[in-house]
Amino acid sequence: MSEPMTGGPKTDIVECDILVIGGGTGGPMAAIKAKERNPGLKVVLMEKANVKRSGAVSMGMDGLNNAVIPGYATPEQYVKEITVANDGIVHQKAVMAYAQGSYPMIQYLDSIGVKFEKDGSGEYNVRKVHHMGTYVLPMPEGHHVKKALYRQLRRLQVMITNRYMATRLLTGPDGQAAGVIGVNTRTSDFLVVRAKSVVLACGAAGRLGLPASGYLFGTYENPANCGDGYAMAYHAGAGLANLECYQINPLIKDYNGPACAYVTGPFGGYTANNKGERFIECDYWSGQMMKEFFSELQSGNGPVFLNMTHLAEETISEIETILHSNERPSRGRFHEGRGTNYRQRMVEMHISEIGFCSGHSASGVWVDENARTTVAGLYAAGDMASVPHNYMLGAFVNGGIAGQDAAEYCASTDLPAYDAGQLAAEQERVLAPTRRADGLTPYEMEFKARRLVNDYLQPPKVTAKYRIAQERFAEVRDDLAMLCVRDPHELMRALELQSILDCADMAAAASLYRTESRWGLYHWRVDHPATDNENWFCHTLLYKDADGRMAHTKRAVDTYVVPIPEEEMSAYHQLRTPTPLAAE
Amino acid sequence: MPHANHATSVPVTIDDEKCIAEKGCRVCIDVCPLDVLAINPATGKAHMKYDECWYCMPCEVDCPTHAVKVEIPYLLR
Ligand SMILES: Cc1cc2nc3c(=O)[nH]c(=O)nc-3n(C[C@H](O)[C@H](O)[C@H](O)COP(=O)(O)OP(=O)(O)OC[C@H]3O[C@@H](n4cnc5c(N)ncnc54)[C@H](O)[C@@H]3O)c2cc1C
Ligand code: SF4
Ligand code: SF4
Predict the structure, then answer these.
(1) CATH class of A250-351
(2) Smallest Cβ distance to B33: which of A54, A330, A492?
């Protein structure tokens, strides 16, 4: 039995203009663009891991999923497509801001050394995966992304604090953002960063559901992205949009690497049932596509496979080179262990655990076209912000927008005061598990919370199950009084568990609030099976009310900047092939 | 509630012969996004201290002496 850690917490206080939290993809770009806008600003980048290798793109990326490149797609076309894919519930101005920033960002990335696939004449080699437009740009050397970002951060003298986990935002006298409380993941020392504005870029909430393997860290998302950003935004009073629109992905069974649509699709790979038949026309990840995928899995036609057996040898070698070297290089090892060779055998697929991520859905901390949240001075970008289907390029573009707007905001703002009582209370919350000599470990509590998420929250969503989930989560929350850790590393896991619980509660509450079905599998309410445009053609915002309780409100969908004819709205609803197509 | 001593196999192994941690190298420990590698006080070499791996591989790719080997965690294999 270990001794509880004792003594008052060591606390350093730093002041700056802009604080960026999360040094993965969108965060570094926010810091870079803020510095480029005004080199005189002091910009701090706080990262839980190490900026060199953190976040979803830790090892690099296979390609841009949503590049809007002149000659291949127009911003208007893209906005239309994303609107349709999200059943109309989008803030189009923000999608348009992304679409217009897309090509300039590709050129910027190119200029700092990120390589994209080009044809013989030096033009970008864009490929088609989406239902309507052409947006996929491969990055054969995608493993250089993080290096290029890091060089730029150093060049612009952004102050980087690695291995500090942000736990709660500080708010000023008028409720505005005033900084953050961070705790070192190796020493448990505190770092308080006071700032005029704060950009949140903490990635998805990827540790919400439990992968079928039972391995806590075998998630689709980088497990460092456990929902801290959502929890911090919530506790600071920000509104979170459409959290009932879960992220669920089609992945390789047990491995949790993506596969089909973006990488193999353009080469001719496709999703098939156990008879080798195609059952969906378009592999682009949407809620409707996931519903077809789920139905096929549940039917006698499951499991579902990724089929590449019909492809030529050169094509398969090229796919292998991309898939086994960039973003998930351990995938080759996984296939080897199972004796799977793309040439001979279809690859078994499955659906992922649930999570929050705007990368592939329409949920997240509410932001407008300037990446502003509902809290003054607080911005959000990347997978945790509400701009739908953002992916990597969206994280870059919206991170950049956030950084630039924050730079402007700072110019007319003084450093807000913060409440010392808020800091003291947070230090007490953080350290509580260190003061107990024995009790429950973060691991068993996390396992239980996430197992409950699978049991009760996974769609199809049943009201009775959701009510039970809420009771069980409340019991787990009561057990926090027995949570105990032995070292700073376990303390990080204990804090992450608390973010996971917050997200589980938010997922349940948001899903119960929207009494209709929408977004295919993502929000399939069995007790309210129809889409109800009369009452629910709106965003939902979840927020913490004055009494500290979870509350909800509706937010009207702003007038479209790109109008969509009624008959085009259902394009993503007709994904199932009319009759099963024979294998090619 | 006292604790049990629960053992588990780790997916990441380090070849002590090749590891040059005694010369001050900390590359794999620095780059791991989940902070699960550390110096083993018994050997002075790097090792996997916590079984919480995303099998993402920066540790293996960035090690200057190719001492790190990432396997798929047993539960997924
Ligand atoms: C396996 C995989 C494959 C993908 N493939 C593609 C692809 O091919 N093409 C594409 O366009 N997109 C792809 N995506 C999506 C894309 O990578 C993401 O949308 C994008 O990188 C998200 O950027 P982000 O900045 O929001 O999050 P991240 O880059 O994940 O950064 C979040 C950062 O926040 C840090 N953090 C979290 N909590 C805290 C805290 N409390 N305090 C401090 N720091 C914290 C994390 O350590 C992390 O570094 C893929 C994603 C995954 C997971
Ligand atoms: S990077 Fe390689 S040499 Fe360096 S400490 Fe790790 S295992 Fe040892
Ligand atoms: S594979 Fe990734 S998570 Fe696992 S030890 Fe290496 S760097 Fe860390």
Answers:
(1) alpha beta
(2) A54
- Chain B residues 9-48 within an 8 A CB cutoff of chain A: 30-35
pLDDT in tens, A60-110: 787 888 899 998 899 999 999 999 889 999 999 999 999 999 999 999 999
Indicate which ligand has the atom closest to the C-alpha of A185.
1
Asked if A136 and A126 count as a contact pair (C-beta separation under 8 A), the reply is yes
ipTM over 0.90: yes
CB pairs under 8 A between A and B: 90
3-state secondary structure A76-140: HHHHHHHHHHCCCCCCHHHHHHHHHHHHHHHHHHHHCCCCCCECCCCCECCECCCCCCCCEEECC
**Residues of A with Cβ-Cβ distance to B57 under 8 angstroms:** 59, 329-330
| Cβ–Cβ < 8 Å for A190, A427 | yes
Q: What is the pLDDT of residues A172-202, one digit of tens each?
A: 999 999 999 999 999 999 999 999 999 999 9
> What are residue A105's phi and psi, to 5 degrees?
-70, -40
CATH class label, A422-538: mainly alpha
- Show me where the domains of chain A are located: 250-351, 422-538
The CA A185 to ligand 2 mean position distance, Å, reads: 21
- Three-class SS of residue A485? coil
pTM: 0.95
B74's tokens: 């047993």
